């Protein structure tokens, strides 16, 4: 679970803090039902990997860490019914068993989240033909404010299914989630530097030539880091730890940029010295995640796919113009649209642009420069990452906003599952 010292909960980066009245860890779903019936206000916490105050509460905080593992599986459909508290990094040890032989269709580059947390916030990886993780949910059990459990799918409670796959924990508590998986597969990861201008010119063509394509773009450097992942039958060639490690270099350069901002352009120019072409092969669950020990805060918007490159160009120009001191690169990814009411990818193929700031630096200094540009291109914010949008602005971006809010009121009329942040976002 996330940090808890002297009754204070904090998220992974330390930016969000709360002092809940109590933190409960039920051992099973029956205990969880009793808690829901007894408490007036509840928020559920997974790994604390959201950068927004989604979890912050002074009421009851519930961790599902003890409600984890695979409940059942269907070999014919290649699906698994998974307990909501299961961490993504633990999931593979269940799915890889010979009797199951399944893997997630897609993952992001962080695997610390609980499955329910990743689903509820629309967490995603990359791939022009691949959805966010929530779109591979085939069914879920929802524990409602009354303590009742609803089984939801495209055929049972279809409206709740359409809304509940990305609901920020506002409709109730996901207890079990059925994921559409596929047989286990290996991926070949290749990382190299290439000119920013060339890549941006040809990326709309090359996005379909790789299963996954991801770019890390630095504000003062004319080369970007290109990472591609493709399916392969080649023998495993595991990732090696560099010396000094990427994390060590990132922390060092971030510290230098924080203390000596004028060094930032020169530090970024060292990219070519430290980044050499590398190729690794491993099972998908080992290739997707990247170790992240350097803490940061993050903003991310999903831009309509035909405007993403133009938007990125404008963001880079602004970072240079305002001489924003951040060593972290911008992350640039493709995500396929879906049909989930509050998914940032609802009916929209997107380019995801992520902006990071070192956790010891004020994120507002960079986010205030970048966010107006991301909003200008009708970007939708990632629900787990920092943004300043209000209810009126969000409603204009989501055609099913009012339908979602009506359903939320119906399922939770007393707003048991809303904390102050969500009350402001949904009711304010």
From TrEMBL:
Keyword Oxidoreductase listed? The answer is: yes
Pfam families in alphabetical order: ALO (PF04030), FAD_binding_4 (PF01565)
SUPFAM superfamilies the record matches: FAD-binding/transporter-associated domain-like (SSF56176)
Q: Which UniProt keywords apply?
A: FAD, Flavoprotein, Oxidoreductase
User: Any idea where the FAD-binding PCMH-type domain is?
Assistant: 16-184
**Source domain of life:** Bacteria
User: What are the GO MF terms of this UniProt record?
Assistant: D-arabinono-1,4-lactone oxidase activity; FAD binding
Q: Name one GO cellular component term.
A: membrane
Q: What is this protein called?
A: FAD-binding PCMH-type domain-containing protein
According to its UniProt entry, this protein's organism is Acinetobacter tjernbergiae DSM 14971 = CIP 107465
Q: What is the lineage of its organism?
A: Bacteria, Pseudomonadati, Pseudomonadota, Gammaproteobacteria, Moraxellales
């Amino acid at each position: 679970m996330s940090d808890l010292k002297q009754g204070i909960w904090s998220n992974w980066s330390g930016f969000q803090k709360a002092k809940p009245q109590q933190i409960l860890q039920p051992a099973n779903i029956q205990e969880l039902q009793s808690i829901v019936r007894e408490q007036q206000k509840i928020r559920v916490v997974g790994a604390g990997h959201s950068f927004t105050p989604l979890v912050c509460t002074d009421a009851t905080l519930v961790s599902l860490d003890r409600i984890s593992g695979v409940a059942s599986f269907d070999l014919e459909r290649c699906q698994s019914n998974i307990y909501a508290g299961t961490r993504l990094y633990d999931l593979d040890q269940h799915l890889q068993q010979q009797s199951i032989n399944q893997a997630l269709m897609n993952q992001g580059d962080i695997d610390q989240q609980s499955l329910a947390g990743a689903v509820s916030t629309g967490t995603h990886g990359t791939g022009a033909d691949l959805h966010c993780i929530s779109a591979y949910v085939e069914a879920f059990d929802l524990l409602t404010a009354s303590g009742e459990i609803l089984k939801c799918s495209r055929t049972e409670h279809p409206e709740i299914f359409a809304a509940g796959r990305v609901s920020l924990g506002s409709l109730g508590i996901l207890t079990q989630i059925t994921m559409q998986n596929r047989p286990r597969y290996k991926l070949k990861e290749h990382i190299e530097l290439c000119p920013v201008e060339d890549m941006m010119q040809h990326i709309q063509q090359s996005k379909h030539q790789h299963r996954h394509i991801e770019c890390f773009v630095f504000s003062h450097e004319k080369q970007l880091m290109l990472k591609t992942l493709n399916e392969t039958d080649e023998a495993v060639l595991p990732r090696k730890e560099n010396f000094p490690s990427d994390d060590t270099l990132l922390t060092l350069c971030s510290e230098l940029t924080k203390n000596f901002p004028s060094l930032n352009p020169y530090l970024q120019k060292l990219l070519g010295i430290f980044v050499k072409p590398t190729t690794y092969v491993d099972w998908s669950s080992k290739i997707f995640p990247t170790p992240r020990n350097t803490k940061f805060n993050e903003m991310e918007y999903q831009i309509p796919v035909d405007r993403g490159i133009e938007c990125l160009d404008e963001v880079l120009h602004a970072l240079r113009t305002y001489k924003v001191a951040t060593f972290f690169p911008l992350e640039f990814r493709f995500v396929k649209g879906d049909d989930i009411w509050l998914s940032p990818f609802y009916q929209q193929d997107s380019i995801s642009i992520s902006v990071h700031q070192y956790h010891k630096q004020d994120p507002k200094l960079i986010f205030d420069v970048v966010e107006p540009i991301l909003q200008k291109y009708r970007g939708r914010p990632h629900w787990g990452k920092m943004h300043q949008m209000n209810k009126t602005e969000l409603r204009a971006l989501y055609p099913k906003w009012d339908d979602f809010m009506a359903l939320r009121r119906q399922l939770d009329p007393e707003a048991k599952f809303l904390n102050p942040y969500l009350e402001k976002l949904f009711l304010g």
